[in-house]
């Protein structure tokens, strides 16, 4: 993609989020679209959102489970940027019409106490840089059509990355834990929608260890001279499949001794 195409795609995504009207699949418009193109579109979108008053609050890591990677025929996670207007209080009701096609994932969030950057980061460095960890629900949305109505073709990883990794919202649980207090590989959740258990999972579903996702993110950001900052919230990746969140639905994620987090959709 040339620079004009990248900027046009970023503007189209920005307007789609504002209007609630999805755009057609970018990877169909640009059949030669690459991963680098996707992140270039995302970067232009982030710049546009900041220019409109958005404040960056952290990062999300996606596609960390083997099942999701196999489904998309990829072998790497993706990432996106969290903004201040994406955060909802635990137990909050998401207003009707806020999102286009919301879905829910359960994750472990890392809240950072120091900056973290570099190309050779260890798991221990991640834990040392983390102030607390807590339960979280990520709200996904898509400003790009999931399926082309004319051809039946589905969006690709390039579309998701360009669309800020399908990032939309985040609900943090109230509990806070030191990063070494519990074995995060064995920290998991029972996730219910409307009082029906829909999914269960463990932190080990995230690259075998949620902290590994943070290592991956820091090393990816290092390629662009960036890194994680003190105070950032980082979603380490989901260990359940995405759950559809239609109007009127309620979600509860029970993490046992780790805590719980809930939200509902008006």
Describe the structure.
Helices cover 27% and strands 27% of the residues. The protein is built from seven helices and 13 strands. Helix 1 crosses helix 3. The termini are far apart.
In short:
The protein is α+β, with helices and mostly antiparallel strands. The chain has helices spanning 3-19, 26-29, 35-51, 66-72, 123-129, 157-162, 210-222; strands spanning 56-62, 78-83, 87-88, 93-94, 103-112, 130-140, 167-172, 188-193, 196-202, 233-235, 243-244, 250-254, 260-265.
From the N-terminal CA to the C-terminal CA, the straight-line distance is 39 Å
What percentage of the residues does DSSP assign to strands (E)?
A: 25-35%
CATH fold assignment: Fumarylacetoacetate hydrolase, domain 2
What's the alpha carbon Rg, rounded to whole Å? 17 Å
Output the helix-strand order: HHHEHEEEEHEHEEEHEEEE
* Number of helical segments with 4 or more residues: 7
Question: Which structural class do you get from the secondary structure elements?
Answer: alpha+beta
> How would the global form be characterised?
globular
Named at the architecture level, the CATH assignment is Alpha-Beta Complex
Based on the model shown, name its key terms.
single chain; 266 residues; alpha+beta; Fumarylacetoacetate hydrolase, domain 2; eight-stranded mixed sheet; five-stranded mixed sheet; globular
Topology:
Layout: H1 3-19, H2 26-29, H3 35-51, E1 56-62, H4 66-72, E2 78-83, E3 87-88, E4 93-94, E5 103-112, H5 123-129, E6 130-140, H6 157-162, E7 167-172, E8 188-193, E9 196-202, H7 210-222, E10 233-235, E11 243-244, E12 250-254, E13 260-265
Parallel strand pairs: 1-10, 3-7, 4-13
Antiparallel strand pairs: 1-2, 5-6, 5-10, 5-11, 6-7, 8-9, 8-12, 12-13
Helix pairs in contact: 1-3
């Amino acid at each position: 993609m040339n620079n004009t195409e990248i900027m046009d795609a970023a503007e189209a995504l920005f307007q789609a989020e504002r209007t609630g009207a999805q755009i057609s699949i970018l990877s169909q418009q640009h059949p030669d679209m690459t991963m680098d193109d996707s992140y270039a579109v995302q970067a232009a979108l982030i710049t546009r959102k900041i220019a409109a008053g958005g404040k960056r609050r952290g990062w999300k890591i996606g596609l960390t489970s083997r099942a999701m990677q196999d489904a998309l025929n990829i072998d790497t996670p993706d990432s996106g940027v969290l903004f201040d207007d994406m955060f909802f209080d635990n137990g909050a009701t998401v207003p009707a019409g806020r999102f286009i096609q919301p879905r829910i994932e359960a994750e472990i969030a890392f809240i950072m106490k120091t900056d973290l950057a570099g190309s050779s980061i260890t798991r221990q460095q991640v834990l040392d840089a983390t102030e607390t960890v807590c339960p979280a629900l990520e709200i996904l949305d898509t400003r790009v059509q999931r399926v082309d109505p004319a051809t039946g073709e589905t969006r690709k990883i390039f579309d998701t990355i360009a669309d800020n990794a399908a990032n939309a919202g985040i609900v943090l649980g109230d509990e806070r834990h030191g990063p070494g207090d519990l074995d995060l590989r064995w920290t998991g959740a029972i996730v219910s929608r409307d009082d029906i258990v829909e999914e269960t999972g463990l932190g080990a579903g995230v690259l075998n260890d949620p902290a590994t996702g943070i290592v991956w993110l820091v090393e990816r950001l290092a390629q662009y001279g960036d890194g994680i900052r003190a105070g950032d919230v980082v979603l380490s990746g989901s260990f359940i499949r995405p759950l559809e969140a239609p109007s009127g639905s309620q979600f509860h994620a029970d993490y046992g001794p780790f805590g719980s987090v809930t939200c509902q959709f008006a």
